[in-house]
Design goal:
alpha+beta
């Protein structure tokens, strides 16, 4: 317990005795009990839990905000990766067919990546 201090930023690992929806949540230590750490969810894995205070065993927490907490952000990242890969496959097919030059392929890939960031 001595490794945590009030105000520490933490990330919830897989909670051993709490619902799994807390996994990956970012929070701030608000109080420290005799066996548990009380954490206010700054950016919970699900937005509906933002601001909630939950108690965790010390082993369920990692110091610092690590990773992307929101499940919706994780899903968006996965879809973006799929879209980027799809665009790259189209460019490869166009290059193989001789429809575009390698320089045009690079430009298309860059334009597609830029489009997906918006």
């Amino acid at each position: 317990m001595s490794s945590f201090k009030v105000g520490d930023k933490v990330t919830v690992r897989w909670p051993s005795d709490k619902p799994a929806y807390h996994e990956g949540s970012h929070g701030t230590v608000v109080t420290i009990g005799t066996k548990r750490v009380h954490v206010k969810m700054d950016k919970a894995a699900f937005e509906s839990h933002d601001g909630e205070v939950a108690t965790f065993l010390p082993g369920d927490l990692k110091i610092g905000h690590v990773g992307i907490p929101r499940n919706s952000d994780r899903m968006n990242d996965a879809f973006t990766k799929v879209r980027l890969e799809t665009g790259s496959q189209v460019v490869v097919a166009a290059l193989d067919a001789g429809v575009i030059t390698p320089e045009q392929g690079e430009q298309i890939n860059a334009a597609w990546a830029n489009h997906l960031q918006k």
